[in-house]
Specification:
The structure holds 2 protein chains of 2 kinds. By secondary structure, chain A is mainly α. Chain A has helices at residues 2-26, 32-58, 65-87, 93-117. Chain A has one domain (2-117). In chain A, helix 1 (2-26) runs antiparallel to helix 4 (93-117). Chain B has helices at residues 15-41, 46-67, 71-94, 115-135, 140-150. The chains are: A mainly alpha, B mainly alpha. The A-B interface holds A 27, 66-67, 70, 74, 82, 85-86, 88-94, 96-97, 99-101, 104, 121 and B 1, 3-5, 13-18, 20-22, 25, 28, 32, 36, 40, 102, 111, 147, 151.
């Protein structure tokens, strides 16, 4: 279950990144659909933070809790920060910021899963 | 399109926005990693963890300088970053025992898809490219119009 959740959120982040990249390439300004897409991802990340904390409390395995929760917390902060920083930029690179942020979210999701499974890289 | 804020040719605008975002990610990654390493296992590989912390500080300074258009500080930080990734990358290949645990700059940033290696070059290129605009040299008007059309 955890695998599917983390992986689907990672793919969702990649999809939002692709959507934002489409804006960047087409020189489209920050659009409402992109904002909603980022909002959906943000809701998924909040759900993952809550679900992750519950799962951490319930597991008997030896998971690095501090690292795990700090990753989940960082994930929640990234999309709003990127949207605020990107929306203030009126050139095509405003959405470029969102591309960078969403790819970061995807990578962090994969790392969260590794930490959950106890794989230390 | 051309009114991108009070200083449209500053380092934090246009492509610089995305660059600052990448720097912010690395500032976070390197400093958070080192804080965690120093807090939980400082005695295991003090050199590597101190280096992670140093890298984190350098990325934070570079992010701040680029975001606030402090070009001298940005040049210094990115120059240090370039020297850092080059020397640590080379040293970690020559003698792996120097860095028993990973840092952002080990193996030229291979653990971070070599972005740490490419980033300082992009940063210095960007500082160079935006320079003409702020100094008001002959190139400035051209930069202005192309910016309006292309970005």
């Amino acid at each position: 279950m955890t695998d599917a959740a983390a992986n689907s959120v990672a793919w969702l982040a990649v999809a939002v990144a692709a959507f934002a990249a489409w804006h960047t390439v087409r020189r489209q300004p920050f659009s409402n659909p992109l904002f909603y897409a980022a909002a959906v991802l943000e809701i998924a990340l909040i759900a993952m933070l809550v679900g992750g904390c519950i799962a951490l409390a319930g597991t008997s395995r030896d998971v690095d809790g501090v690292l795990f929760v700090s990753y989940l917390g960082t994930l929640v902060v990234i999309p709003p920060a990127a949207v605020l920083w990107g929306i203030a930029e009126k050139s095509r690179w405003g959405t470029g910021v969102v591309v960078v942020a969403m790819l970061t979210v995807a990578v962090l999701c994969v790392r969260v899963l590794q930490i959950w499974k106890g794989i230390n890289v | 399109m051309s009114d991108t804020g009070p200083n449209p040719t500053g380092t934090a605008h246009g492509f610089g926005r995305a660059l600052v975002a990448v720097y912010a990610v690395f500032a976070l990654a390197a400093s958070a990693r080192s804080l965690y390493q120093l807090a939980t296992k400082a005695d295991e590989a003090p050199v590597a963890y101190a280096l992670s912390a140093l890298a984190g500080v350098v990325y934070i300074v570079a992010t701040f300088a680029l975001a606030t258009d402090r070009r001298l500080l940005a040049t210094a930080a990115i120059g240090f970053e370039l020297v850092g990734v080059m020397s640590v990358g080379a040293l970690s290949l020559v003698d792996g025992s120097l860095f028993p645990d990973q840092t952002v700059w080990s193996d030229f940033g291979a653990g971070y898809v070599f972005i740490p290696l490419v980033l300082p070059f992009v940063g210095l290129w960007w500082l160079r490219r935006t320079r003409s605009g702020t100094r008001g040299q002959a190139k400035a008007p051209r930069t202005h119009t192309t910016r309006g059309r292309n970005h």
